Amino acid sequence: MSASAQDIVRAYPQAGQALAEKIVEVSGRLGIPDPGWLANLINFESAGTFSSDVRNPSSGATGLIQFMPSTATGMGTSTAALATLSTVAQMDWVEQYLRQWQSRGFGNPTDLYMAVFYPVSMG
């Protein structure tokens, strides 16, 4: 049984309903079997804040999945620009980033996490 937007809000009230709904939508488009996996990843990466502007002071990684500055640049944006977006709007960038790894599959939570942490290890 996969998580619904309501399940995500119950687990992570700080995410809010609109972001939880967007997580469910993006998960569906990417073929992620359980949107809760993506919510868990965002919770971890954003240090529990579910904030689009949360920034790692050491690496400069920013946002819901901690986009590295070089990754943001490679996607045609910047961490500064990503930080100005609402969480719902930043999810479009999360989807764009994850789409490049979609062909490898997100059959389990580990593959989803590895797409962010260390993509070469997926599968």
Low-confidence stretches: none
Number of helices: 7
User: What percent of the residues sit in helical stretches (DSSP H or I)?
Assistant: 40-55%
Oligomer: single chain
Strand/helix succession:
HHHHHHH
Shape field: globular
Distance between the termini: 22 Å
Largest sheet: none
Number of strands: 0
Task: Give your account of this protein's structure.
The chain has helices at 5-11, 17-30, 35-45, 69-74, 79-83, 87-99, 109-117. It has 123 residues and is mainly α. The radius of gyration is 13 Å and the shape is globular. The protein starts with a helix and ends in a 6-residue tail after the last helix.
Record keyword descriptors for this entry.
123 residues, mainly alpha, 0% strand, single chain, 7 helices
List the helices and strands and how they pair.
Elements: H1 5-11, H2 17-30, H3 35-45, H4 69-74, H5 79-83, H6 87-99, H7 109-117
